Structure formats: structure tokens, C-alpha cells
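Q: I have 203 residues here and want to know how they pack in 3D. Can you give me a structure?
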Amino acid sequence: MKEKLVMVGNGMAGMKVIEELLDIAPEKYEITIFGAEPYGNYNRIMLSPLLAGEKTVDDIMLNPIEWYAEHGITLHAGKQIVEIDRVGRRVIAADGTNAKYDRLLLATGSDPFIIPVPGKDLPGVLSYRDIHDVNRMLEASKQHKKAVVIGGGLLGLEAAYGLMKQGMDVSVVHLMDTLLERQLDKTAGQMLQQSLEERGMRF
């Protein structure tokens, strides 16, 4: 009898574990995966080209839906786990879908940080972490012309660039006086800012 392995989360890190298990112990587990998003596993690093219109959702897929069935994996896509019954050893999704486990792997990733200021819950305040966020940003770019991106780190600058590519007038607000301060010194950060300003980005 195979052990029942349930993974909560369908992102890059968790799926790398599953791929390794299929390689080194293909007969050990009966695998079930729950993912809150209605997709297979995709490359989150490529969300910026998706936002900029340089890639499509299909382009950034690492494990499309068909891959799971081909490898004998049960995928519950678009089903968010809301309860773990540790006594009964099962997970339960918001819609009631559940699965028993012998082994449980939690690989849910992180939530984006939104600064705790008044107005953070208003319409038009968006985070940037997944395909749903990108779709909301693309929709906003069709209805509005101005965007403010809070954060001049890598993700913030990529989001700002993608929104500019969608025709928006973008301003970046950054806490530090140097962009990408964890990667660049002050001179390099100023050079980067100048280059982006020449392309139309405001700071």
C-alpha cells in the first residue's frame, strides 16, 4: 500500500519536492495536491514579463494541468485549504473537498506585505504575487492612467516597468534614498534611477 501524501500549495518550491520524490521514490506515495489558484505550477519569477505583455500564462507554466494526471497525481486546483484535522489526518478545503493523509507537506509560500496605513483596503490598492494580481493590474491599466508603486526593490521596479509597458504614468515611492539598496551601492542606484527616469518613470 502506498502512503498518502497530501501537499497544500502548488508553487515552485513544493512542486520541486514532488518532482524529486517522483524521481527517487516513484512507488512510495499516492500524491494529492491542493492549490488555491486555478492553474498548474507556474514560474512566479516570470510574472513581470506577463504583466509587461511579453509572455502569456501558457508561456510561464512549469507543470500544466495535464502533467499531474500523467504522473498519477490528484490535483485540486482552485481549492483553498481552510482546516487541517490532525486527529482524523485529513485536510479540508473551503468547498468541503477533503483528503486523508499519512504525510502532510505544507508549501503555501508567503503573503505579500501591504503597509499598514489608512486606505490600504480601498479599491485600487493591489498586491503583486500571483497571476490573479497581474490580471487585476492589467484590468486597472485599461481603466486608469496613473499608478503609484510603493517599493523600489526588484519586484516594485518590475511592476512599475510592466505598468509603464501597459501605457500607465508610473511613480515609484521608495523608503530608502537608493533604489535596490540591497543589491546596489549609492552610485549604481543613482545610475539605475537616471536610466529609468529617461524611460519615463518617476520617483
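Q: Anything worth noting?
A: The chain has a mean pLDDT of 95. The first strand starts at residue 3 and ends at 8.
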